[in-house]
Structures are given as C-alpha cells and as structure tokens.
Amino acid sequence: MALTGVEIFKLLPKTNCKKCGFPTCLAFAMKLAQRQTSLDKCPDVSEEAKRILGEAAAPPVRPITLGTGDKAVKMGEETVLFRHEKKFVNPTVLALEIKDTEDEAVQMEKVQAVLTSEINRVGQLLRVDAICITNASGEVERFETLAKTVAEKAPEVPVIVSTESPDAAKTVMGLFSGKGALLYGVTEANAEQMVPIAKEAKASVGVRADDLEALSALTEKVKSLGVEDIVVDSGARKAPEILEHNTLIRRAAIKKNFKPLGYPVINFVQREDPLYETLLAGLGICKYASVVVMSSAEKWKNLALFTLRQNIYTDPQVPMQVEQKIYKIGEPDENSPLLITTNFSLTYFIVSGEVENSKVPAWLAVMDCEGLSVLTAWAAGKFTGAKIANFIKESGIESQIKHRELIIPGYVAILKGAIEEKLEGWTVTVGPREANGLPSFLRQKVAA
Ligand code: SF4
C-alpha cells in the first residue's frame, strides 16, 4: 500500500535542514506522498528508510521500455486512474501486426506503413511505434523469414514477437537480442520454456491468460522464473471485456497496489473492418492500454488515433508549450520583420503558419509565458513591457537584424509605450489582432 505523508515523515531524519528544497521534512513527506518529488532529494535519509520508502514509491504499474535508441517507447509507470488526478504518463504504444501467413508484398507494405507513419503535430513527433510479428502459420521457417525481413528493413523499430511456440521463439529472438523486444505468447503451459528464451534475449515477456485470476498467477510464475518486465493480456478481445478487464487491472494496481497485476496491459484489436478496429484501438487508448496491436495503419486511422492519444496523454494541468527562442520563418535576413508572440503551442503554430502563408521571410520571437496565450499571459503579468524588453535584449536578435522594429500582437497594443520605454532605440508597431490578418499586414509592410 502507498504510504501517507505522516507515515513517510516518521521515516525521515526530521532535521528540517531544507537540503531537499522544502522548508521542513513534513512538507517534503507530503510531496513524496503525492508523488510530486523523489526520495533522492533528501541526502540524509537512512538506508532502511530508503528501502521502505523506495518500495512504497515504486510506481504501481511497472515501467517497461520497448525497443532501444531514439525509437524506444516507454510503457506503464502510471499512478492514477483518471488523468485529472495528475496525468497519464506513457502514451499507448501503437503496434502494427504483420503475420507470417501474409504475402511478402503485403508484409513489405506494412513495414513501409510503419516507417512512413510519422507526423509532427503541435511540435510532437507521432508515429506507429512498433511492429508485432505473428507466427500465424505455426511454422518456424516462415516466421524466421518474416523476422529477418523486419530486422533488416526496420532495424530501429521496436518489435513484439508473437508466438506460443518455444521453437519459433528460440529461432527468432536471437535476431532481436538486446534490442528491447517483447516476447508475447507466454502462457501457463509454455512459461518454463519461453521465459528463459526472453531472458537470454534481454526481452520483456507478454503473458496471456483467460481471466484475471489466472493472469495474476501467471505473472507471479514468470517473476519466479526470473523476468520482472511483464506485459499482461487478459484475453479480452471484445469492447465490453477490454473496458472491464483493463479497468479492473488498473484499479487493482493503483487502488490496491496489487503487484501481480501492476504491469502494462496489451490489447489486440485486429478486425476486418478498419473503422471498428479504430474504435477498439481508441477504447484501449482511453482506458488504460499500454500497447494496442492493430492489423492496418492507414493514414486516416493514424491521424485519428494519434490525436486522441496526444490529447489523453497531455498533462491537463500544464498548457502545451514550445521552446522560448527566435524562430526563423523562411530565410529571414537583416532587414526581415521581427514579430513577437507567446509560447502557447497553439498560438505559436497559428502565428507561424500565417507568417509562412504571407511568404514574407520573418523572425518570430517566441517568449516563455508558461504556455499561456497572448491575452491570458498579458492579464497574468507574464507578457509585460519590461519582460518583453528583457527577452529581446537577451535573445541576441540585435546582432542579426539591422532595423530596430518589433511587431506586437494587436490585442496587446497597450504594451507599445511600455516596451518602447524599456527598449531604447526601438520602435514598436502594433500588428493585427487576429493571426489571420498577418499575411496581408506583412505583404503591405514589405511593399511599403
Ligand atoms: S533534506 Fe531530508 S532532512 Fe533535510 S529537510 Fe529535507 S527531508 Fe528533512
């Protein structure tokens, strides 16, 4: 069970030395209980307390990484049932299934669909994250041929190896050894043979049982065989079961700290009808699936699922933001106009998009206002004359442009005087109120 703030406090040194950044040990304990800080911030905690608190502080859903390198994806590590309580941590991994019974041309098309699936949406790169190779034929040779194709054509893509055959697993897992693969298909019947194969390949293990009780017993068995990185499949395939089982598993892990079910969940949602499959994948994303395995990856479907996943896994308490810096739109030179806006993602993408539409190369100064939009940031005192002046001075833009003119959003025309007062030698021009007025504004400006 998770410890309360007072229980944690009893295990701390109680010297109120402030080295952890909190004014008292009690304040630190309260933050630890809310999982808003980490134990390593206190340098004086005893080894015994570390052991007890470390166990209690471990996330109720075990964190597991699929793949290695830049394309590796994390699963699990979740701490809440509802995203408004804190946030969901690791976005659902979308995996495309390729069967060894499919034509070679279809297999290649699917590999390509994964490799070309990446899109940039509000500054985040989103893609189909993994390939699940399935031994549908039951033949070792066919499975090996498919595995070799995937290993060769998509070496960086995380792989799920799906088979219940120890012979097939043994033959194929060597190709993905040390690459953070997931060996799925471990059951009560084959665990003794399959788990050592996964262990040797440094892979995690995907277990399947027909109900939650059997699933709990199976994860304990796999753990006793020496593998703790486990992904669980309750056998649910229909929408009501997926919803029910995923919820029960997450609830047991979070509310009861029930370790045998404290693992990421994998859902298999393959259907002939792509629309139905998309709905099931969406259900998995909304309700606790760490991996969703699909049979196709059309662009329209990806877009719908990427958008849903991005929304569900965005921290509801933190506005989406972009980095504070001077962005180049087109190829601006020393005479190009300089505009300023705030770092709320949506604001940045709308403003930069409209500047791009104008075809006028420009400098866009994006100021850190904690992800607030222009008017909100101004009202909150984060987008003020003095702060803007400081940002412009420290940004280094003065060495890149000859002129000294700053275009500000029309909604904060009121800031013109304050900025000019703080930014000596600069002229502030009030731009349009709405971003869609920027193309004609900028074209007129360069024509003048
Ligand atoms: S660093 Fe440790 S001992 Fe010092 S105040 Fe924080 S919790 Fe207490």
Report what the structure shows.
The chain is α/β, with parallel strands linked by helices. The protein folds into three domains: 5-57, Electron transport complex subunit B, putative Fe-S cluster (3-methyladenine DNA Glycosylase II, Chain A, domain 3); 64-312, Dihydropteroate synthase-like (TIM Barrel); 325-447, Rossmann fold. The protein is 39% helix and 17% strand. It is built from 16 helices and 17 strands. The strands form four sheets. The protein has an eight-stranded parallel β-sheet. A five-stranded mixed β-sheet has the order 13-15-14-16-17, with helices on both faces. Strand 11, helix 10 (274-286) and strand 12 (289-294) form a beta-alpha-beta unit. Helix 5 packs parallel to helix 6. The longest helix has 17 residues, at 239-255. 39% of the residues are buried. The mean pLDDT is 94. The protein binds iron/sulfur cluster (SF4).
